[in-house]
Amino acid sequence: MEFNLLKACSNTYGLLLLLFILCLTFCYPRRRKGIPPGPLLVPVLGNLLSLASRDPMSRFAALRRKYGDVYGIYIGRELTVVLNGYDVIHDALVKHGKLFSVRPRSKFHQIMFKDPGIVFANGPMWKEHRQFAQRALNEFGYEWSERTIEERINEEIGYFLRTVGSHDGPYDVGGLVNLSVANVVAGIMFGKRCEYDDVKFKECLHSVGEAARLLTRSGLLMSLFPWLFHAPGDLLGIDKLAKIREKPRAFLNHVFYWHDLHFNREETRDVLGLYKQEIIRKLRKNDECKFNNVTMRALMGELLSAGSETTATCIIWTILYLVLNQELQEKLRSDIDRVVGCKRPPFLSDRKQLPLVEATILECLRISPVAPLSVPHAVHEDVSFRGHVIPAETTVLVNIHSVMKDPSTWSEPDVFKPERFLNNDGDLEIPNEFIAFSIGRRSCPGESLARMELFLYVTSLLQRFTLALPTSQPPPTTEGVLGMTFSPKPFQIIFTPRDCMSNPDWENVGI
């Protein structure tokens, strides 16, 4: 009897062991012949452990050193190809842009981004909305005069600086920068400014980061355990994400209602008005219309969140580097005093006379790129690239960080040196390898607007305040946190008003 029991147990354990081995075999992804090289695979996890780090970009750099400029990593069973270095990225996004300009269309992306505007759309939908966004953002300043955008930005900067000046002692300006830059974008998008204490406005912006964190978690879980989509409950957070998205939807409903009351078909001064005109024009011509209320909401939400989050993060990084480099801060302020003075706000026309300001901004974008891996690309067919095979439906990551920190392009790439963007005559000189806004068909459509905002915010801030570290706190770190953007950790500084803040002439420019 005892022997039979032991035999039965042995058979049971043997069967379980066999099932375990079969499970590992099934879950263990294998690299097809020609697939880009990469680290050894771990069952179920793939290469996830190879990326686990507080500084994930350093792990990407280590993988590049070991496997080259084109390598493959697995998140669970899903292959992701990582492109590194300017030559490789330019080859993919510019020379072979048609193949690499699409977005992933995995089940995860179809579920989470079912109403794409520009960011995750593909085909004619993306093409038409991309063209519209470029015209609306890049030509806005030329069709209705660049001065119009400049006035919008400077008006908002006035509110921003007045709020900064109302704070005594150490202050974390990050939240205020986000609200202020979002107001610039909202003004251009909708023709409406929101108060900094507007609850719907603040909830909308907060929900963007909340949704991004949830999407990262959900995407990882779905890659590792695809069956979770069919499991009971809300293990992937799909229902939770829907609730989070109610906040920006409520804000957009409020803004759209306000806009409908003030919309003039014959004359419009904002992007939403242009979109409505485009819908009307296409309906009158009986064109196949890919512009409708659903895509309008998706596009406006994307432009508001992406257009404000990235630019605000750039400004916060610049403030951090300025407060850590007091000597540079004084040089910049001296240049601003010489060119702009104290009787007027900075204008975009001052940029050519303030090359060091421009160089400082560019160096901040280089040394701490806010989108180090860009937005994921994909290929929708098998592609032969640089001696490798990239299978159809593979996600492709563009490692912008690898270009901005490449020692073959930038001497001492980890050292903050704005002068690297100045030539021997002291004029601004931007190498082709500076790709903070990406390149190719999917490059950032709001680059020109972002560059305007960065210059005016940074110049105005230095013109009217000195920035110093609190002596009671340790200096902030330049180590960032990778989320929706690569952001600095929270820090506090002291803003001391200069004489410009008490100049009565500022009453005419919103100060």
From TrEMBL:
Compartments in which it is found: Membrane
The protein's required cofactors: heme
Alphabetized GO MF terms: heme binding; iron ion binding; oxidoreductase activity, acting on paired donors, with incorporation or reduction of molecular oxygen, reduced flavin or flavoprotein as one donor, and incorporation of one atom of oxygen; steroid hydroxylase activity
Stored Gene3D superfamilies: Cytochrome P450
Transmembrane found in the keyword field: yes
GO cellular component: cytoplasm; membrane
GO biological process, one term: organic acid metabolic process
Transmembrane regions listed in the UniProt entry: 12-29
Sequence positions that bind heme: C444
Principal location: membrane
Claim: Membrane is one of the keywords in the record: yes
Alphabetic keyword roster: Heme, Iron, Membrane, Metal-binding, Monooxygenase, Oxidoreductase, Transmembrane, Transmembrane helix
Family: Belongs to the cytochrome P450 family.
Annotated protein name in UniProt: Cytochrome P450
Gene source species: Dreissena polymorpha (Zebra mussel)
Native organism taxonomy: Eukaryota, Metazoa, Spiralia, Lophotrochozoa, Mollusca
